[in-house]
Amino acid sequence: MNFISTIIVFTLMWWLSFFSLLPVGVKADQNPILGHDQGAPLNKHLPMKLILATVIAILSTTLIY
Q: ∠ CA(52), CA(55), CA(61), 5° rounding?
């Protein structure tokens, strides 16, 4: 696999793992402030999900390579 193919596979794996991790650990606010959506999450944990998606993408790209 050449360099461009590796970058494409990594990008696809990163987005796939990131979108798969988005709903993990999300809890809705039981008493939302007036004007806020009832389904909006309290704490999204995005920095941890970004790091975890990157690690998963690196491992899966390595496995594919």
A: 135
